[in-house]
Records
---
Amino acid sequence: MVKKEMKVTKASEHTVEIITNSGEGAQKCAQIFGQTCAKMGNGVWTVEIIPAEIEPPHHTVTSTSGNIIRFGTHKITNWGDQSKLAIAFNDQVLLSRHRLNSLDDNCIILQESMWENHEDEFIRRNYAAAMEEMSGKNYRFISVPIEEEALKIVTNPSHGKNMFALGLLAEIYQRDVSIIERQIANIFRFKSQKVIDLNIQLVKSGMAWARENLDFRFDIPSIPAEEERIVMNGNQACALGAIAAGMELCAMYPITPATSVSHELAEIIESYGGIVHQAEDEIAAAGVAIGASYGGKVALTVTSGPGMALKTEFLALAIMVEVPLVVLDVQRGGPSTGLPTKVEQSDLLSSIYGQHGDAPRVVIAPRSIEECFHSMVTARSIAETFRTVVIVLTDANLATGVQQFTRPELDIRWQQGPIDQSPVPEGLRPYEWDPETGLSRRIIPGTPSGQHTVTGLAHDEHSLVSYHPSSNELGMRMRSRKLAVFQSTLMPPTVYGDEEGDLLVVGWGSTQGAIDEAVDRARAEGRKVSSCQLTFLSPLEPGLKAIFSRFNKVMTVEINYSDTVGDPYITEETRRYGQLAWLLRAHTLVDIDCWTSCPGQPLRPKDIYRNIIAKLEPLQVVEKGEAT
Amino acid sequence: MSGLAISLLDLEVDSGVCLEVEDYQKRPGKWCAGCGDFGALNAVKRLLAKEQLQPEKMVFVSGIGCSSRFPHYVNAFGFHGIHGRALPVATGIKLARPELDVFVVTGDGDCTSIGAGHWIHATRYNANMVVMMLDNNIYGLTKNQTSPTTPQGYASMTSPRGSVLPALDPLQATLGVSNASFVAQTADWVPAHLYATLQAAYEHPGFSFIRILQRCPKFTPDVFEQQVKDPDLTELLVHEDGVDPPGLEKLFKARRIHNPRNIDDARSLARRRDMLRLGVFFRDDSLPVYDEVRAVPPVTPQEKINRLNKEFERYAV
């Protein structure tokens, strides 16, 4: 074979997709590739592409399972725009990615070669139709006999193609093979040496094929980190954060995309003196956590939107009786069953206001995977200090995104000391609210002379049921006061970019990376745009109105629904805003606009960028919700 | 009664302080005159005094309803929560603090209707607690609505022409659950039996479910009227492993020796409708107790940090 001239392209970052049927091992391939990139010093962000079903019919557009790996010389904070290279195990799963606009116009596609001339006419026809549909783009297709090559080494190609694909990537991106080998040994550490050897052999055969047949390579330089780092997804970070925070009981009911938090915990928490209790339903999970916390344990309940809805009554009870509780809500698309495996930021208002009566609670939203870890420590501390409910809002983007971050320095104070169980002095009332702060001593069962009955009914400082107007008003005031006291301990949020300008983009939670990247692009063009990512949503961080006043326009960017003015019936009077926009408008009386989108995917920097530009130049109309 | 004397003596040696029955009353019950809940409260206070339980080492957990006001009247820690959800809270308390004595007070609406899911699963968890299900066959606090245990044909505000379905039988339901370990039935109008049943439930290691038939003078004054008037309509299930309170032989002539370890007999007796049966239908001390099987040894904060630092190695870049 005549070797073509090798072309090595240097780039500061690249995005790769591995697209397969579910069950073909894309996640393992991507996990090892991402880990290898991280270990070599690249910034990495990976995103799972997962169907809601366990193993839908193969070779269809709905069976797509895969992974996106964005890696670069610099820190990577989000999944970016489009993929520059893809490995596809069949035409239909590839087509699904094409239809979602996930592939760059010039994407290099390494495609399984066996379908084009397959003996089954149905498969051939579908293949031809798929290729026709994708012909409008400038994709570069390269046929690769993935299954044929894998079959030279293993008998079941479903357990081999992924490692062959990993070999292709290893060669294209010139990865350090010894790191890959160590990763394989680690991932298959519970399997036999034979399995490990076979997998390494598959990787090497992929590399050899690429060496023989591909005329391009990419060079993504890396800067090895100085500090120690760990790499994990947001759910793993929350689980380890819960351990670091000394949490002793996690009560949960299975719900996507939150469940893997409890998988992580179930694996290890007992060696930390705690347990995972899988309750009979979401309501009971909240009840068990509240009971355990009332008993003096540090308790957590983990759920997603539908579970939050079910837990509402219990959360209000915890607030009413002032039992500390941490609730982790890994948000997914709603309403109803919605988009179980997909991202949305639409539980904000229901988390803050979702109950009958007034039940003030703390709501925080970590902005990165690193913050997922630390949010659990923060949440516990707030919950116990203020004897209230703290809701931590992450989402499917953080839950399954994988990123490296500085290895946390664990602090023994995060575990916090035991609760004061000294005898309760005569005359101390169970809710002896400090008139300034609303705080009172937490008296747990077993405390001598502490016996009293807590009740969800309106009660006075003695914890006696009371229907008196004045005691009801006092209880309301004291429970609310605690939020104001907590807010007084917060710092104003930082502004990314200049402190003043034409436009301030305000986001919350997981969108930070994409928003900041979009702002960088606009600023590189000389636009006067800054961003501000909120993490404390209830109570809101201080100083917002002053920050907003230094910008001509303020706009939230969120992954949830909002109306577009100009749509039928939608006017300034009827328009429904994004959830953070609602909150900030009410809070600051500033005329805050929003751009929101709910495509069931993380936001892309380029879409945010386009809408920043559109906001600055109102004549340019951008179609809302068109996320690509 | 010799048991009582011994246990009182033991405690006097221990602490030197003897708590009387009335010491366990926080404040008088605020139920209607003639309400069966008073009988349950009296029996509980007697049990606590007999066992000399420390008020701060017990938690009474309840949901919503007339009977769920119970914790407000007992000198102990109390958790008066939300409708139907006493059992998850009690399970959480027991998981957190297995050394505490946990009592759950619930009603037919609270337990067998809105809290039915928790009832089934708490029975299966078999956490060590006493559950008193005060069954007056009606929703009382919300003023006279049909409950799952309301007799078929019985009129209420929501079924003015009579309840259309056969009543749910809490005994059969509980006896049908895997890992059910103690199921008994007693009645507020037989105080000696109520007290003895509570005592047996308290001593049982596991989830002790007692259905206490409870008269509601306001809304169901007649559902148990015949049985209250005519003891011949009631059969006592007696056994050395169940309850056989002294002094009831003359009043209740119908006595059946029932070995409560026999689940088939228990289910069969629960199904029969010929007489009202009071006694321990089933008990099995050998079944897994949730708070025991989930117990894990404590770990010091420093050791947790050491282990977590090691855990990080798995994720090291």
Note: Chain A touches chain B through 69 residues (CB under 8 Å).
---
Amino acid sequence: MPESHRLNDPLPADSVGIITPQVAHFDTPLALACGKVLPDFDLVYETYGSLNAERSNAVLICHALSGHHHAAGYHNDEERKPGWWDAHIGPGKSIDTNHFFVVSLNNLGGCHGSTGPLSHNSETGRLWGPDFPLVTVSDWVNSQARLADRLGIERWAAAVGGSLGGMQVLQWSMAFPERIANAVVIAATPRLSAQNIAFNEVARQAIRSDPDFHAGWYSEHQTLPKRGLKLARMVGHITYLSEDAMGSKFGRDLRTNDLNFGFDVEFQVESYLRYQGDTFSTTFDANTYLLMTKALGYFDPAARYAGNLAEALAPALCPFLVLSFTSDWRFPPSRSRELVDALIQAGKPVSYANIDSPYGHDAFLLPDERYHAVFSAFMQRAAKEAGIMPANDEVTQ
Amino acid sequence: MRADLEIIYDWVPENAHVLDLACGDGVLLEALARDKDVSGYGLEIDPDGITRCISRGVSVIEHNLDDGLSSFSANSYDLVIMTQALQALRRPDKMLDEMLRVAEEGIITFPNFAYWRHRVHLGLRGYMPVSKSLPHAWFDTPNIHLSTFNDFEHLCRDKGLMIVDRAVGVGDHRGHWTSRLWPNLFGEIAIFRVRRRS
């Protein structure tokens, strides 16, 4: 995550600045993959940069498991940390807001303002809670297409996403091939492995077995399943970091000088994980976490084609950039390569780079010289092809 | 464009579906796509090369050639090109098999170790040759399987491959008549176009 550097400091020059989220309300019902229908819904979103007259410079950001619409800049002067992908969105950054109009939303089922378990069901007046339908990646993409319609964006110059966000980008390329000009899929996978599903199940069980969970109706009991959510996040967090990253950050360092032969926090890594879990358990909604992990698990575009991913990708029309990170063991390079091989088999234009990084899955959020070089080279190419940026502009590396 | 790339450019037919192994900065694939409607992918391992390919709009896959070409099915390409990489591979012979599994035809270029300047270096001065085509010192060279024009012809004969065309490059130019007549002596860069007998 980006370092917090604001304490009455001026905004960094490469920041998109102070951003105010917006809300789009949709009255037309949305049919979901599970068979249910959302009668109406809200999507909260932010935009960075400006939309050109031809509406051809829009880039969609798709967020990951615990992400949201606040991808870049600051909400106000008091905010200490910028949005979650500030390292890559802004003037002169990989997604250069001097050229692109960037749209970042909170997905349906989220807990940051879009319709989800924390919203009220307009038909019953009751809080959705655990009754909120299990939305899927394709539901998200369908709702994102509605947002594109609302903003007058017929075709994204690029759809970009890391991890679960990368799955949404893949879905865009297959479901709305004529509506995206480029696809950037980072640290993602075409489907979860048994190990991925297993880790998610541990996280879900941690939440669901918390006595404060109340079958998902914790709000009505004026409580929160904090312990469960904390555990879920701790397990998740381990899978986001590499062994090396954890080792070099904490090693076997102790909080105090001596062992105290008890079960309180002793090692620094324990303290760190507890802190991460605690913070998350008060800022994230448990029902949202449950359904997001389900959406991850359900995504498998090849399933309809007897496991043939190349066939599933046949409708895609855009060039792809696929990126992975050497130390990512949640969605390791081999999973990205699986996707790349399927794209090659399907004859789609695709470029692939495996970025050398010690930071595990989290590397996709962090700044890195080579990551920036390939990512921005692809985005600049996209800008030139869309006529947003002059073709003879020097490539910055 | 490099001399060997210019010759290859002329050899590649229009609309061909091509795999370019060790495609470097993608300059050949870009020119082929632009002028001859050639499609395909480049494989490269150098980060800068990969970035340059992406800037040019060339589809490039980060890939170590020593890992083989198992991602590519048999006969899925018209032509596989590999320039200046044969000598750096762990098993050049296996790669030749792989290339001609994926396509019926292959184009291969490599530095000719029997080039007269190399011979002078080794034969008269007694040092491992260092030249424009072999710029590294013996201890840090990536070139672990150096061979000659004749060696490669021999390998092709052993494998039952047909040599469709061969050419030489000298420095930045195509070879003149001496190198065409005595390629093993006067050719600095060997360029072969081979085909499997079906």
Note: The interface with chain A takes residues 39, 41, 47-48, 50-62, 71-73 of chain B (CB under 8 Å).
